[in-house]
Amino acid sequence: MNQDSKVKTTESSPPAPPKARKLLPVLDPSGDHYYWWLNTMVFPVMYNLIIIVCRFACFPDLQQSYLVVWLVLDYTSDLLYLLDIVVRFHTGFLDQGILVVDKGRISSRYVRTWSFFLDLASLMPTDLAFLRLGPHTPTVRLNRFLRAPRLFEAFDRTETRTAYPNAFRITKLMLYIFVVIHWNSCLYFALSRYLGFGRDAWVYPDPAQPGFERLRRQYLYSFYFSTLILTTVGDTPLPAREEEYLFMVGDFLLAVMGFATIMGSMSSVIYNMNTADAAFYPDHALVKKYMKQQHVNRRLERRVIDWYQHLQINKKMTNEVAILQHFRVQIFQNCEASLLEELVLKLQPQTYSPGEYVCRKGDIGREMYIIREGQLAVVADDGVTQYAVLGAGLYFGEISIINIKGNMSGNRRTANIKSLGYSDLFCLSKEDLREVLSEYPKAQVVMEEKGREILLKMNKLDVNAEAAEIALQEATESRLRGLDQQLDDLQTKFARLLAELESSALKIAYRIERLEWQTREWPMPEEMAEADDEGEPGEGTSQGGKGRTGQEGLPDPE
């Protein structure tokens, strides 16, 4: 039984589908495999764009001399074209942000696009025309140009991935210029052959002349002539025939469009570079203009310029985001990870030039500093004597941003800190710390305890003053609680008084309405009479007496 079941299980498991999935996986259009395949497709597309036009009735010697090489390269590129269609059928797409890996949906989507029809048209077996026209007619392969969109897609992907996008844009522009000049040179040579070599000074010289019969000379001469025309340099022979005039006019128009494209592309590259610099570095021209308007002295102006050059030369940005991975400050140890993350986001980068003071003794401390790079010296009041040197990773001023009771130095700086060279620091202000700690009260208590321990080790904590401040704080809190209780009592009394006032106003309104009815000829409504009867005896008697008196005082309507 066990062996039979094992045999049945083995026979029922299909091994083929897993192998098929491994051989033909679904590619992510933003993944590396798809990117490298696009780069592979650059070679067959560029081969067809450059070589076919040379063999197309332009340089017949090139076609006849290397026929076997061209046939091998042609069918290799056709094989890559065919594989590219297979890759298209296995390239996923995003649907509502999710990668679709269902091959049925991928195939149905691909066959409904224009890319599918262009890919099929570029792979049509037009080479069968060789059987009738002969192998020296490469014009039948012009449909291979329809795969050019894959070239543009590969360039776009590379431009977004490369670390030097501006250099790649310039390289791509130069490649386009080369292709245009290459095509134009081939057309020039074909037109010269059509009109007759050496018939005038404008066409290609007669190959019978020594040196002009070589294939390399023919191509280089045509390429040079086309370059002169498309760059509008001049120094070209005047055309003598109508066909030559038309060719020159078309080239001049193409040159104008080429110059416009080149200027636009180069302007875009320069603008992007300037925009990138402006996003990370201050505009030194505006800074210089501002200092000139404010009549800043030469020494300060020189320091500002040196600081700007330091940022540019060392590629340091003034608005860095990725700054610290861990807080190594003692008072922040044992704090929550979310608190540290918020504190890191509050850090502001600052750069100090050589000889500049970060803080002076006696200044009010409103921020703490963490040294990212550079060296700082603890100096005496003369600014020369050095007591200690602080390096990267150290910190100072952390006690000044926490209000610790009994701190003998208060919030005043106790030392002079001076930058020895260019120093990059991260600054955390007291306001930012208070804003973050408002959401973490327990962390605030822990940090105050840590700061108190540090002050005790430094003998800068007055215990008696701390106890007095604590007693004063408790007394103040007790008075505040008493004031809160008195305020609650006053609010209660005010509410009662307001209720009595509303009740008195309602009673007065009833009395006025009853008196109005008593002064009229018709009887009082039963509801009001019942309300009057239900009133207090004394009150009702006095009111009734007043009402009767009022009635007796009125004249008889008859």
TrEMBL record:
UniProt name for this protein: Cyclic nucleotide-gated channel alpha-4
Pfam families: CLZ (PF16526), cNMP_binding (PF00027), Ion_trans (PF00520)
BP terms from Gene Ontology: sensory perception of smell
Domain Cyclic nucleotide-binding residue range list: 331-437
UniProt superkingdom: Eukaryota
Compositionally biased residues, Gly residues: 541-550
Disordered: annotated segments: 1-20, 521-558
Coiled-coil residue windows: 458-507
Family classification: Belongs to the cyclic nucleotide-gated cation channel (TC 1.A.1.5) family. CNGA4 subfamily.
SUPFAM superfamilies the record matches: cAMP-binding domain-like, Voltage-gated potassium channels
Stored PANTHER family: CYCLIC NUCLEOTIDE-GATED CATION CHANNEL ALPHA-4, CYCLIC NUCLEOTIDE-GATED CATION CHANNEL SUBUNIT A
Keyword vocabulary terms for this entry: cAMP, cAMP-binding, Cell membrane, Cell projection, Coiled coil, Ion channel, Ion transport, Ligand-gated ion channel, Membrane, Nucleotide-binding, Olfaction, Sensory transduction, Transmembrane, Transmembrane helix, Transport
Subcellular location: Cell projection, Cilium membrane
The UniProt record lists the keyword Protein transport: no
PROSITE patterns: CNMP_BINDING_1, CNMP_BINDING_2, CNMP_BINDING_3
Biased composition (Acidic residues): 527-537
One Gene Ontology cellular component: non-motile cilium membrane
Reaction catalysed by this enzyme: Li(+)(in) = Li(+)(out); Cs(+)(in) = Cs(+)(out); Rb(+)(in) = Rb(+)(out); Na(+)(in) = Na(+)(out)
Membrane topology: Multi-pass membrane protein
Entry keyword annotation includes Ion transport: yes
InterPro entries: CLZ_dom (IPR032406), CNG_cation_channel (IPR050866), cNMP-bd_CS (IPR018488), cNMP-bd_dom (IPR000595), cNMP-bd_dom_sf (IPR018490), Ion_trans_dom (IPR005821), K_chnl_volt-dep_EAG/ELK/ERG (IPR003938), RmlC-like_jellyroll (IPR014710)
Organism per entry: Canis lupus dingo (dingo)
Membrane-spanning intervals of the chain: 34-58, 173-191, 219-238, 245-266
